[in-house]
Amino acid sequence: MFKYIVKRILLSIIILLGVSIIIYTLTRLMPADYVDQTFSSKIQSGAMSIEDLQRYKELLGIGDNSFAGIMKGYFGWLGNLLKGDLGRSFKYQKPVAEVIASQMWYSFGIAIVATILQFLIAIPLGITSATHQYSVRDYVTTVLTMIGIGLPSYFFGAIVIKVFAVDLGWFPSGNIVSGGVTYADNFGGQLAKFGDMCWHLVLPITVTVLLSIGGLMRYTRTNTLEVLSADYIRTARAKGLSERKVIYKHAFRNTLIPLATLLAGILPSLFGGMLITEQVFGIPGIGKYAYDALQFADIPFVMGYNMFLAILTVIGTLFSDIMYSIVDPRVKLK
Asked: Total structural domains in the chain?
């Protein structure tokens, strides 16, 4: 196991290197330009000349968009990365690592809670839908999950805010804490602040979970139906075992084997999906910061954020492979 993990980590470094080249090239080729957007008014008023604008671009390392210029900028970024420096954000005027470290915890908390709830809800729904195939329960579950798959996050988020925040007033419509409220630095004050944050995150987490359980539920249903038609399931039933034991002891374990594949992409996909959800609910998480940075063509921050997602994907893939060996003893890691 240890040799396998070390080998995968070394391979992941090569993969991340290739990913970073692609991401940096695409980022440099974006039509938006931070310097042009920021100083367009000064150019129009004559307060800054075109030559000054070009010199500022050269200072930031984005003046030459030719292949040679992009490669020069990439190797400069890579050299700083090897020193532990992700660069300085154009928009936020802070080190990228500092911005990501300070803002990622909101997104990370939402993603972890949403992932746990997604599995706790989707897997039982998929199993019960498969064991009651073509029943009313199966049709209702399938229709609801298909609605969740089809609805865009910004549209569904707006509906949820309209109904539960504006019309009913049950939950706050956005932000992370109540405006105009201050909390003491003692334990009681921080506990009250944490409760207020949890209350503000109910709607974003609900939207994230409802829009993500559909695919996992359908996947679970399909795998369960396939397992239930296997010979060993018919043998278990012929021995007189209860249906509950047949499903949850014999069928459930083998249903989990294909589901382990999904672990590779769930966490990074939730972080990526939070980009829109955080924008809708005004949550100051890493997704909202990345969205704003993308609009301003903040190359250092966009690079840092996308590499963060790439690392999560690599970790998820490794974790998925390890889970295979745990769920299915026949799988050997070599």
From this structure: 1
Encoded tokens for 139 = 């049709």
At 23-56, the pLDDT tens digits run: 888 888 877 677 777 777 776 677 777 777 778 7
CATH number, domain of 231, equals 1.10.3720.10
Q: Read off the pTM.
A: 0.73
Convert 22-55 to b/e letters by CB count within 10 Å (16 or more is b).
Answer: ebbeebbeeeebbbeeebeeeeeeeebeeeebee
At residue 138, φ and ψ (nearest 5 deg) are -65, -45
Rounded Cα distance, 317 and 285, in Å:
24
Separation CA 192–CA 176 (nearest Å)? 13
Report the interhelical angle of 263-281 vs 153-160 (nearest 10°).
50
Strand partners, 88: 95
Beta bridge partners of 280: none
Query: Cα–Cα distance between 224 and 191 in angstroms, integer?
Result: 43
Angstrom distance (rounded) from CA 160 to CA 173: 9
90/99 Cα distance (integer angstroms): 12
* CA pair distance 9, 18, nearest whole angstrom: 14
Residue linked to tokens 């399909």: 222
End-to-end CA distance of the chain: 8
**Per-residue pLDDT reduced to its tens digit, 237-249:** 788 877 777 777 7
Q: For the beta carbon of residue 108, count every other beta carbon within 10 angstroms.
A: 16
- Write out the residue range of the structural domain in which residue 222 sits: 98-260+270-286
